Amino acid sequence: MAPLAHLFDLASLHLRPGQGRRLELSVPLEGMTLGGQEYTVEPAEVPVQLDVSRMAGPGYALRLIFEAALSGPCMRCLKDARPVLRIDVREVDVPGEEGGDLDSPYVERDTLDLAAWARDSFVLAAPVAVLCREDCMGLCPMCAADLNEAGPEHSHEREPDPRWAKLRELKLE
Question: Is residue 149 part of a domain?
Answer without folding.
Answer: no
